[in-house]
Amino acid sequence: MKNFQVFLGGILLIEVNNIEYIYPSGIKALDGINLKINNGEYVALMGENGAGKTTLIKHFNGLLKPTKGDVYINGINTKNESIAKLSRIVGIVFQNPDHQFFEENIEKEISFALRNFGFKEDIINKRIEWALNFMNLEKYRNQPPFLLSGGEKKRLALAIILSWNPEIIVLDEPTIGQDYIQKEKLMQLIIQLNTQGKTVIIATHDIEFVAESKPRVILLSKGKIIDDGPIEEVLTDIEKIKKCSLILPQVTQLMYNLSDLDFPRKIVSVEDAVKLILNKLEEK
Amino acid sequence: MSLFEGFKFKSIQSPIHELDPRVKLAISFSIFLISMMYIEIQISILLLIIQLPIAYTAKILKEWIKSLSSSLFLAAFVFFMNIGVSFFSSGYMLTIFDIYNALALSIRLITLFTAFSIFLLTTTPDELGLVMTSFHIPYDFTFAFIMAVRFVPVLVGELQTILDAQKSRGLEIEKGNLIKRIKNLIPVFIPLLVNVFRRSIELAEALEVKAFGASKKRTNFKELKMDLIDYILLIIIIIISIIAIYARFI
What we know:
The structure holds two protein chains of two kinds. By secondary structure, chain A is of the alpha/beta class. Chain A is 38% helix and 24% strand. Chain A has helices spanning 53-60, 83-89, 106-116, 121-134, 150-163, 180-195, 207-213, 231-234, 238-243, 250-257, 270-283, and strands at residues 5-7, 10-22, 28-38, 42-47, 68-73, 76-77, 90-93, 168-172, 199-204, 216-221, 224-230. The longest helix of chain A has 16 residues, at 180-195. The model of chain A is unreliable at 1-8 (pLDDT under 50). By secondary structure, chain B is mostly helical. The longest helix of chain B is centred in the first third of the chain and has 29 residues, at 61-89. Classes of the chains: A alpha/beta, B mainly alpha.
């Protein structure tokens, strides 16, 4: 915690310095990525399939080490630190929760990581209670994780990560296979964590989810960052959005179609659109 | 994991890839046969060198070298086992012949390894199935075999994903004493096993949907056909094999 840098007022947590990553098969997945993420930010990584989102995420806790360049987490170069130590700071929830469950019940499943990180027994019990409560999983505590439904498995995977209270929480495709209510709850949860000061990073294709929750957006395409900035700037740029195999958020599409009536195009949220339309109606 | 790289089919176009898979099998099998008959190191090395131009023409030289280097470990194991056995069984004595014998056996293993890696690197799992069908093996067995071959890379990929997930939960595979290390494998192998079962159920359902086994007589989209070059190569292989057998036994 000694050598953190101060950047634009916030504390610089993640610094990606011109990295390149080439898989052993020879595929270049990341090409010249530069990125700075501050403490307390909420960031969405967006891009087409195979753009390099997951590859980039895996650099944040050292699962992958860059072929060229450096990644610093809280001032620590990931090349010089173990994955376990980095995971204590960066909690990653992967896309498919089925790739990690192995214990006989949910309580033990949560305690696995806590034991790996060397927490004391009484703290482990408190953390399990807290995580089960927070993710609304108490009634399943003695059930095997394999019997949960898809949405519950995703919640358990998140509860596992939250249990050790990492500073940075990374979610890979959190909305896949979730119904609308679950998505809404997930969004509230992300906002809650973010207001508590956690840095949250999500990788997703779900443009409506992003448009509603208003993070800073980073667009990735073919291993390069093609845009990075506030959501109203990035998600309303039709050319760049197309490059990432995405389409504009519906509200933005509406505003594009209404632009003949002097409506601004850089709108992503329903509330802003409603306000503008109502104002226009009142004028007339 | 690099062990599998040397045996995984690579989809490229080359004269070797276009050969009839039965001819390719014959090449690998004749190398197998000859190296089993001759213990001489020169012959084993010759058989290894013969594979070089074949691998080069098939554009798989890199993968071939990979399978060679991954067989080195096994070869070293065979070498020291043989040395050890002859050392202890002959009353703590080692002759030049023992060392020669051990060396020959380990080089023979490398030859066999690489010979079949050429066959598997240039033959699609589907062609492999056609070869088995042409030998009148029941399709149920053929299909099970193809699926087993086909799913190896999928499982390797899945293993990597599981390892990543568990490492992100603080698991340190290579930490601790032997017992702790074996225990460390539980969080990796249970999810893998669960996924294998789940996948096999899905596969069975998919087969059911596609009416697998509905008709006794199957037709194939692709049929194996021997071209002139295939016949010429096959005759050359048979002649070489006969000469080798003749020189060895008669």
